[in-house]
Amino acid sequence: MKTAIVTDSNSGITQIEAKELGITVVPMPALIDGDVYYEDLTLTQSQFYEKLEGDAQVSTSQPNPIDVGEIWDKVLTENDEIVYVPMSSGLSETCHTLQHFAETEERFKDKVFVVDNQRISITQRQSVMDGLKLAKEGKSGKEIAKWLMDTKMQSSIYIMVGTLKYLKKGGRLTPAVAAIGTLLKIKPVLQIQGFKLDQFAKVRKLADAKTTMINALKNDLQTRFKELAEAGKMTISVAHTNNYEEAEKFKEELKEQFPNIEFTYVDPLSLSVSCHIGPGALACACAIKY
């Protein structure tokens, strides 16, 4: 039994990296001034931010299930099964759409397992890497999907955004966060605990935001994930939106604060996420590893 791992570009995994890893990445579509672009195929990060900050009409769209099905068909010519790891259903209906597609299309039944394990960006990437390890051990698609679902809540993401402009525009906020949108000189720290972005804290400086996020990770690793951390089963990573220099600095701070936890990735957030967060964001996450 040969099981392939397929994900989407919300994982932050590029097409080049996908080839190196032996996986497949479905490019997510972005709509810019009415034209459709595909992440890492017809649209680069720099082109995207140029459009976003230039006040172009930028939005995201679900991939066409027929297009995804064609990708699955191609992967299944060389594999028996697929585990598909999309972005969290709490942030997009894409997951539910593709789950239904896999369950109702006869050629995909019991062959394609769409995993709704509530991940995005660097935590989604970690799920992909875990799935890849399990597949290399010979685990079936059903077994891999079960492990990913059993561990889906064993991660946290904390995000500092410089502005709520894009979050409000895209409707990716709970009422609690939207309520602080008119406040000035506030750098909100948001959290993702599996579902939608929600308010975590309000600070006024970048340094305070980083301290807040570090303390939040410490609390998670000393409480919710204490046993996993002590067993060496947790990772830490950083993500950003067009903020690479600060992300690299934050990486070093986290490595100093958590010397016993494996540091894994510094990734730019995918374009479909960046569209709703805007430039200048900084995020950190902890997640279980297989």
Explain what the structure shows.
The protein is α/β, with parallel strands linked by helices and 290 residues long. The chain is 41% helix and 23% strand. The strands form three sheets. The protein has a six-stranded mixed beta sheet with strand order 10-9-8-13-11-12, sandwiched between helices. The chain has a four-stranded parallel beta sheet with strand order 2-1-6-7, sandwiched between helices. Helix 5 runs antiparallel to helix 6 (141-150). The two termini are 20 Å apart. The mean pLDDT is 90.
Features:
single chain; 290 residues; alpha/beta; 6-stranded mixed sheet; 4-stranded parallel sheet; 12 helices; 13 strands; 41% helix; 23% strand
CA(first)-CA(last) distance = 20 Å
**Principal-axes shape call:** globular
Low-confidence stretches: none
As a percent range, the share of strand residues is 15-25%
Q: How many strands in all?
A: 13
Topology, please?
Blueprint: E1 3-8, H1 15-21, E2 24-26, E3 29-32, E4 35-38, H2 45-53, E5 58-60, H3 65-76, E6 81-85, H4 94-104, E7 112-114, H5 121-136, H6 141-150, E8 155-160, H7 165-170, H8 175-178, E9 187-192, E10 198-203, H9 206-222, H10 226-230, E11 234-240, H11 244-257, E12 262-268, H12 271-277, E13 282-288
Parallel strand pairs: 1-2, 1-6, 6-7, 11-12
Antiparallel strand pairs: 3-4, 3-5, 8-9, 8-13, 9-10, 11-13
Helix pairs in contact: 5-6
Give a short overview:
The chain has 290 residues and is an alpha/beta fold. It has helices at residues 15-21, 45-53, 65-76, 94-104, 121-136, 141-150, 165-170, 175-178, 206-222, 226-230, 244-257, 271-277, and strands at 3-8, 24-26, 29-32, 35-38, 58-60, 81-85, 112-114, 155-160, 187-192, 198-203, 234-240, 262-268, 282-288. The protein is 41% helix and 23% strand.
